[in-house]
Amino acid sequence: MSVDPAIVAKIDEGYAKLQGAKDCHSLLKKYLTKEVVDNCKNKKTKLGASLLDVIQSGVANLDSGVGVYAPDAEAYTLFKPLFDPLIQDYHNGFAPNQKQPATDLGEGKTHLLPDLDPEGKYINSTRVRCGRSLEGYPFNPCLTEANYLEMEKKVKSIFTNIKDEELQGTYYPLDGMTKEVQSQLIADHFLFKEGDRFLQTANACRYWPKGRGIYHNKNKTFLVWVNEEDHLRIISMQNGGNVGQVLERLIKGVKIVQSQVPFSRDERLGWLTFCPSNLGTTVRASVHIRLPKISAKPDFKKICDGLKLQIRGIHGEHSESVGGVYDISNKARLGLTEFEAVKQMYDGIKHLIELEKKA
Ligand code: ARG
Q1: Is 57 in the pocket of ligand 1 (CB under 6 A)?
Q2: Cα of 276 to ligand 1 centre, how many Å?
Q3: pLDDT tens figures, 25-37
Q4: What does pTM read for this prediction?
Q5: Residue 193 to residue 212: CA distance in whole angstroms
Q6: Cα(first)–Cα(last) distance of the chain, in Å?
Q7: Is the Nucleotide-binding keyword given for this protein (predicted)?
Q8: pLDDT, tens digit, for every residue of 332-343?
Q9: 322, 256 in Cβ contact below 8 A?
């Protein structure tokens, strides 16, 4: 089956728009060459997804950092001339012949991550999350309304079966949630934001809020996001800098969820996610941290880059720092184990705190 000429024309237009955009620094622009366009524009996955589904968010949002999403698992191989070099660039040089190591969440090793800030001088909170995709389902742009509802039903049944007292809680569907409750959950950093333009233009918000929701335990230290960017985001968070404790709870939660539904995993790319920046471990370990002295220095970003850390504002991705508080995390998620990804953040933050003390 060939790709609709109108779609091919849109791909060509997208390429031309990126070429003309001088201020665009996305990985999409960097790796969507004329050769890649010509190689990929007439290809379609079995579910009917084209290169347009991959690039449309980055074409619409020229301020994207990455700019691409995979509409289904097959897209990562079918459109590899675009994905492979982009993945290599994002994830510390993970080459096309490299393979994601076996999962190691760090069971039995969390004591190696003692509190980074026992006196509570720098770190407001610590969070570790991972993403999972339910086996047998594509990603957002290819999901039907029935798929969303069916997936929500499956994961809800996992939640009702959680026996562990600490992790027990309630599932709150977005559909029917009052605006006040929703806004409060977002402000407190528990719930995803609504209307992310990167996701919207990737066709990832269809049928919203159907099938979307959040599960959390009573203390709001264990959370699961359902059908936002990924099918599942499993999250452990708490105040302070005790990374080991946060990871310990995440491991417990992932094991429970994992024992009840199978997830999509690729031989080479590890756990599969909608965005290539999350492949492999899918682990983003982060702290909200105050570093008033060193963060004011012009080379702060360079120091973080060197430590393989990524800086964000505290109100999520693409937000600015507020009151000198930064969200700092590991950047790469692929080509290392889950424990190593957390350790990368741990070691980097430890170093930053030392620099702050000396400054
Ligand atoms: N597509 C957005 C960009 O390129 C987000 C990329 C990474 N973040 C994510 N949530 N997947 O800036």
Answers
A1: yes
A2: 9
A3: 999 999 999 999 9
A4: 0.95
A5: 12
A6: 62
A7: yes
A8: 999 999 999 999
A9: no
